[in-house]
Amino acid sequence: MAVNPSDRLPRALDSTNLAKEWPKWKQQFNIFMMATGKINEGEESKIATFLWLIGDHGLEIYNTLFPNNGDMNTMFGGQTSKKAPTSATSEQKADEAAAAATTSIAKRSITLNDVISAFNTYCIPRKNLAVEAFKFNMIEQKENQPFAEFETMLRTQMAFCEFECEKCHASYANRMLRDRLIIGIHDKTLQLKLLDAKDEPLKNVVEMCKTHEAASKHKQLFQKHDAHNVNSVELHTGNKDVASIERSETRKVSCYNCGQPFNGSHRRYCPAKDVTCSSCGRRGHFKKFCKAPKNNNHTGTSGESTRAYDGSKQKNDKNVHMIAWSESGNVDNDKSVVMENVRALHRFCDSNYRVNSNSTREGSNYTWTKKYRVQDCSVEFKLDTGADVNCIPMRVVAALNLPLLNEQSFNVVDYNNNNIKIHGQVCLTCVDEETNTSHSAKFLVVDNSLQPILGLETCIEFGLLKRVASLQSFPLDRETFIQSNVDLFQGLGNLPGTCTIVLKEDATPSLHYKKRIPISLHNRLKEELKAMETQGIISTVDYPTDWVNNMQIVEKPNGSLRICLDPKPLNACIKREHFLIPKSEDLVSRMAG
């Protein structure tokens, strides 16, 4: 049968690695012979086809293995050359086994099976099973390597290992392949799952690995689909009171609390979740990613200050005033204290963040104020328990036409240690219109538009504040606590009531006779038992009884004895009373009524 040029011919034998390439080429040749029908032709035609397809290097190997059969006539039983065939070819490239096979084949007409057998002997060297097994055990799945490829590598190498019993020739290749799949798998989570499972066969292990690989790919697909949009918030000055929001959908975002790459489950496992920021004091983010605005020198512009003093209501604004003064001009002096309008910022994007603003939420009682009549004008003062001095704006002093007292210079700093300009002092007589009483106090005149403030000392002097209760701190040392609670540490303590122990109906009494006690402990043991009887812990039993328990004696480091009872058989015969142990929340709720 003529070969069609359009037939898919096997490629020539690659001489790079004959041991690896020859089995594959032989398989392709057999498939070609079956597909083209040449398997049914004569030996001469089959060998000719073999030599035609194997290539130049394969033909050289054939000439080496069959030096006297290069002529087609002698190949199939024709006249041979005058020189008789010898085994001199063993000195050439073929090894001894191939030479012996060649010598025997040369004496008769060769067949295709003889040629293939000689090529098997020549191309496949003698195996070292220990080396092949070592190569098999060194195969591990690489990162991002498909499981099917990893399994194929193991099965290919396993073919060279000949995993079979020497006595019964039973194959244990599946067992070795299963163990190597579990040991060499790259995913440690899957490996732990396989180790926790029972002694699964190879089929189940392969199925579990393929299922896990498919599930991992699906999970990555879901995570890409569930990508979140993160809003970027910025604070603007001037007339912009609301932070602008910028959406980013295409760029890869990071967590705005810790800086790590953001994904769907990151919020639950964020490392900054329980961290307190050292900048703003809030929990949930690192200082590097703090979004709280940093206050500047709050001397304030006239426009912004006037708006804040006029009482413009701003939503979600809270203010705490802290004012102090220093007699020296050194800002870093220990007596230097701060004066600042401290904002309690909310972490909402629509909140209005302002500085030097006295506005509060409508209807709230967060700010305490008091009106006094000064120079026939009603002035509203803010009560601030965190201020050490009184403060009044320069524009209020100018409106009341009050003289300034420059008796002493002051240095006032705000919360961020920024200098606040002081024009001097004024002495005001404040008349309470409700009680018709008057009080005098000195005020620092500041260069901003804050609401007039009464400090802590002045509030107490005017009778506006009164300490209702105070907490006393006690030293936490052990001796002081014991001395103040002597009654709790004397005696054993007795609970009211009588406890009745009920035995089971089928209880069998147990007798354990007394163990011998060292003579050196007799006197001390008697004294300890007598003391326990005096305290009402034990009582003397001078009559026959069905239950006798062991007594254990332990000597303490201070020389005294600890006497313990071992009623193990008795405990097994006691009827238990099962109660639910209350939690602390239950006890607190009962105490609260």
UniProtKB/TrEMBL annotation:
Domain CCHC-type: 277-291
Alphabetized GO MF terms: nucleic acid binding; zinc ion binding
Compositional bias segments (type: Polar residues): 295-305
Sequence segments annotated as region (Disordered): 295-314
Keyword check for Zinc-finger: yes
InterPro entries for this protein: DNA/RNA_pol_sf, Peptidase_aspartic_dom_sf, Retrovirus_Pol_polyprotein, Znf_CCHC, Znf_CCHC_sf
Any one GO BP annotation for this protein: DNA biosynthetic process
Keywords: Metal-binding, Zinc, Zinc-finger
Entry-linked Gene3D superfamilies: Acid Proteases, HIV Type 1 Reverse Transcriptase, subunit A, domain 1, Zinc finger, CCHC-type
Protein name: CCHC-type domain-containing protein
Organism: Anopheles atroparvus (European mosquito)
